[in-house]
Amino acid sequence: MEKAKIKASQMFILVVLFEMGSAILVGLGVSAKQDAWISMLLGLAGGLLFFLVYYQLYKYYPTLPFTSYVQRIAGKWMGRLLGLLYIIYFIYLSTRVLRDFGELLTTTIYFNTPLIVINSLMMVIIIYAIHKGIEVIVRVGELFFGVIYLLAIVGFLLIIFSGLIHPEFLLPVLEQGWRPVFITFIRETIIFPFGEMVVFTMLLPYLNDHKKVKFACMGGMILAGINVTITCAINVATLGVDLFERSNFPLLTTIGKIQLANFIERLDVLFMLYLMIGCFFKISVFFYAAVVGATDLFQFKNHQKLSFPIGLIILLASITIASNYAEHIQEGLKVVPVYVQWPFQIIIPTLLLIIAFFRNRKKKTTSTP
Amino acid sequence: MMKKIFVIAILFLLLMPMLSACWNQKELTDLAFVMALGVDKGEHKKFDVTFQIVIPGNVSSGQNGEGQGLPIAVYTSSGDTLTEAARKATKKISRRLYYAHTNLIAVSEDIAKDGILDLMDALDRDPEFRTTTELVVTRNTPAEVLVSALANLDKLPVNKITKEIKSTEMMLGENMSINIDEFLAGLVSNGKEPILNGFIVKGDVEKASESEDLQHTKAVAILAADGLAVFKKGRLTGWIDHEKARGVIWILDKVKSTSVNVDWNGRKDAITMALLRSKTKVSVEIKNGKPIIHIVIKDEGWISEANTVVDLMSPSEIEKIDRLVEEEIKQQILASVKAAQKMKSDIFGFGERIHRKDPKLWKKLKRNWHDHFADLEVNVKVDSYIRREGIRTKPFWSDLNK
Predict the structure, then answer these.
(1) Which of A180, A153, A191, A156 is nearest to A44 (CA)?
(2) Domains held by chain A: number
(3) What is the pTM of this model?
């Protein structure tokens, strides 16, 4: 653990940038068709619920990151094993986001450039940021928050003024009833992006004001959630259900349609800029959590020694996890949610909370003479 | 300290080639900007593709003595798929074909009847193409001719075509701007069938691509928009022309300004109203499990011509003219609907509206929508308001024979 402190506002910004990072870019909730936005809202509600679990765990051990208190709750050896698994889990998520990022750039503009080149360029910067520590990352976040918001608002206004939005594409609402919305919710939107807040269990101890955790994190989630829902609704309203389902990157297609005053067109670059910033934060947060976890678990004195090796692992893994884009997406939608995300984000923390609850009960009863 | 400088220097040297994006480098002088694509039925292979490439040096305006070279160059190639044809074309062109400025894709009638679907995925999937590219069908002429023809008002003929579509949409309303995305959305949706603009080359087709054509004040060959192509299940089934085409565009709420003639005093087409604004609202009513379509059109305009004796200063006369205009528009709209119903092709998107209004009913009608559409009951109501008459009161006809 570093000796660093973050303000509540910085934590808030980090949460927003992290959540919005890659969620807006990929087609989320597509299986719910025109009700995808309802799935997103449900996902937000579910995510907030699970955040309360993480928050409760934090309250029991306010100065320790997850990898430390899991040892206290589950016992030394079980805890260490779980801690190691979580470190690998964070590395894997970081790898997935990096791969998503690289794939997008290679599909749309940099056709001939090999994936590893693009990914390396991104990782070089991120490794440097991690090396410098969490304070640097949140300060970068503060800088970019304004930029992101400006891009979002400009994009939104341009889409409206190009006359692209057809609200009737969102009808008929709930055509197939609640079932597809619910299934999408359970399978996709609850774990991505909201369930990924589990990574913040590693970062909450850095906050300097314990009372503001709830506000910073939950407020951030709500803001990000509303943004993602609105973006989803705009995508469907502009593209229509069929094109929305067919597009790999729905927001890219939407922005590509902006045509105003004969010269404002093909603004794909806006989208790329947003992508760079969003993915940078997402990868950084996961990566940093893995580094902090490893530092904590293996009792390193400072985390800087680990930044380069873990970064290298993430880089190389991003090339090897899937041999083509279809495999990558298939993994992400079918395999990962069921076998990886649900256990790590929901099941294990809930179990830990129950055990911690009983342990603390015992402590209280033993401390009253 | 020295070690740090050394390491930084090494990093710099390693990173610099990466930052210049060498792999995807495209020099401007190595690119051939494809402005328009024409696709015909191939003789030996499936498609004969024509590429209209701009010659930037000859496009600069204002130089009538100097830049006399032609602004475009046209190349053809063939292949079984669009990608194959595009790659084969590199045997004839010295530069890399760059599609980011392709504003027009012209398809011949034969391809539209059978085979247009095989073109669409390449255009949809490749990120280099614009989604806002216009798609047109050429009537009675090969697409190659349309793409090679020159125009005298615009240096780039592709601009002539795209600007023309937009301006006729605004001033007459018999054609409307239809791009690849809209066409695909119509194809995929089972409650709507797509339409495309038709284009024709009038006059001496052979001379269209020669610059001699431009030496006459009245060009020997002219590119003109002509009617709407109606599709059914991805194939061209028929054409709709003139007022019926305008009716179609009217129902789709794309008519902004046009002109309507009415008879007066026994004289045909005596008074003309020029529309300024028009808004169409289509709604669905479900009665006894059957859908009924209500079309309500509200428009405003002014009297642009009155070729008979009529007192334009009297509000009751104006109201009478209003009623006549409304009746005329209503008849034209109903004629368009009948024409589409005869072809059993729902180009208006009524099916989609029923889907939105009553999904359960749509599930039942979806399968045989073409037949249900042909028997669909459509009601039209027009509200027309003449606001002004220009700068004269009564027409001079009232003063003749005094």
Answers:
(1) A191
(2) 1
(3) 0.84
